[in-house]
């Protein structure tokens, strides 16, 4: 098994992991349907012994107050679609498909300008980490595609 093949498999597992995590999050959002999200958020803040009047808990409460069933459904649908793309991409990368390499390169490259803009606004270690991981994945996919075009498989 070549190094590139092993690398593509590793990226496939990483993408599958992301897809599964987001699918679990979508399921969690659906579990909030027909529930008082504000009351749940207030209970969480109380359980964590946070001051509900301080900045971040207040932002969380404001967000929860505006979250209704239609928004929950849209968020869950968006998360499910994102998850589907990640899992399809993982499948294609695992089985060494060129279309999956293109999808992975494009889907990783889409985030790069936003991550750079985020770093311009506020330099953080996790911003650098996200940018680095995305650039590495995009680089791996571009290299795999270039290798594929130079030495096509039979």
Description of the molecule:
82% of the residues lie in helices and 0% in strands. It contains six helices and no strands.
Q: What string gives the helices and strands in order?
A: HHHHHH
Number of helices: 6
Proportion of residues in helical segments:
over 70%
* Biggest sheet character: none
Counted beta strands: 0
What proportion of the residues form beta strands (DSSP E)? under 5%
As residue ranges, the low-confidence spans are none
Mean pLDDT: 90
How many whole angstroms does the radius of gyration measure? Answer: 20 Å
Shape, per Cα inertia axes: elongated
Number of domains: 1
Q: Return the structural class.
A: mainly alpha
Q: What is the distance, rounded to the nearest whole angstrom, between the alpha carbons of the first and last residues?
A: 16 Å
What keywords describe this structure?
154 residues; mainly alpha; 6 helices; 0% strand
Summarize this structure briefly.
With 154 residues, the protein is an all-alpha fold. It has one domain (3-32, 67-150). It has helices spanning 3-30, 37-47, 55-66, 69-94, 98-121, 125-150.
What order do the helices and strands come in, and which of them pair?
Blueprint (H helix, E strand, L loop, with lengths): L2 H28 L6 H11 L7 H12 L2 H26 L3 H24 L3 H26 L4
């Amino acid at each position: 098994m070549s190094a590139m093949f092993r690398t593509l498999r590793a990226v496939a597992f990483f993408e599958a992991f992301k897809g599964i995590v987001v699918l679990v999050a979508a399921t969690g959002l659906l579990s909030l349907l027909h529930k008082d999200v504000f009351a749940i958020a207030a209970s969480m803040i109380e359980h964590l012994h946070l001051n509900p009047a301080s900045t971040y808990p207040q932002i969380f409460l404001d967000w929860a107050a505006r979250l209704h069933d239609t928004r929950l459904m849209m968020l869950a649908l968006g998360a499910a679609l994102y998850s589907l793309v990640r899992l399809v991409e993982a499948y294609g990368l695992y089985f060494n498909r060129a279309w999956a390499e293109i999808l992975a390169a494009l889907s990783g490259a889409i985030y790069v300008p936003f991550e750079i803009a985020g770093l311009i606004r506020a330099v953080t270690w996790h911003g650098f980490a996200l940018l680095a991981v995305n650039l590495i994945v995009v680089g791996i996919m571009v290299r795999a595609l270039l290798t594929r075009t130079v030495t096509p498989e039979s």
